[in-house]
């Protein structure tokens, strides 16, 4: 668990995090919800995007598309002590950082409780 939080802190420090899910449009300054995806990585390292299991390559493609749309990632990672699961979780966090996509961390796989720092 300490490793996970350390990785999240590093990710926060490597690029600016935008905590809002809304952006202003040019049409009368109306707020419009930003594009987002929900990414959950379970204890075994299985990746889910919007409740559908995906591969790491599919996640890369989704992140590239999301970056073009200036969206955000809602991220939840299960606590694990398994080395294989931890490596996959670490890889997901590295990809989000690599593409410099803002994210909101959540404490549960249902994305109900946002992690507050």
Radius of gyration: 14 Å
- SSE ordering: HEEEEEHEHE
Low-confidence stretches: 13-20
Strand content: 15-25%
Span of the ends, CA to CA:
15 Å
Largest sheet: 5 strands, mixed
- By helix and strand content, what is the structural category? alpha/beta
Average residue-wise pLDDT: 81
Number of structurally distinct domains: 1
Structure summary, number of beta strands? 7
> How many distinct helices?
3
Percent helix, as a range, is 25-40%
Trace the largest sheet across and list its strands. Answer: 5-4-3-6-7
Overall geometry: globular
Structural summary, described in words:
The chain is an alpha/beta fold and 117 residues long. The chain has one domain. It has three helices and seven strands. The strands form two sheets. It has a five-stranded mixed sheet with strand order 5-4-3-6-7, covered by helices on one side. The longest helix has 16 residues. The protein is globular and about 35 Å long.
Q: Which labels suit this protein?
A:
about 120 residues; 3 helices; alpha/beta
In short:
The protein has 117 residues and is α/β, with parallel strands linked by helices. It has helices spanning 2-14, 56-68, 83-98; strands at 22-24, 31-33, 36-41, 47-49, 52-54, 72-77, 103-106. The protein has one domain (2-17, 39-106).
């Amino acid at each position: 668990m300490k490793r996970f939080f350390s990785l999240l802190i590093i990710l926060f420090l490597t690029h600016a995090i935008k905590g809002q899910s809304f952006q202003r449009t040019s049409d009368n300054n109306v707020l419009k919800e930003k594009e987002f995806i929900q990414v959950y990585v379970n204890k075994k390292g299985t990746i889910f995007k919007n409740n559908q299991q995906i591969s790491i390559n599919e996640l890369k493609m989704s992140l590239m598309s999301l970056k073009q749309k200036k969206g955000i990632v809602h991220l939840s990672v299960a606590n694990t002590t398994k080395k294989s699961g931890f490596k996959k979780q670490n890889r997901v966090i590295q990809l989000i950082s690599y593409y410099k996509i803002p994210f909101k961390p959540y404490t549960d796989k249902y994305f109900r409780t946002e992690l507050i720092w």
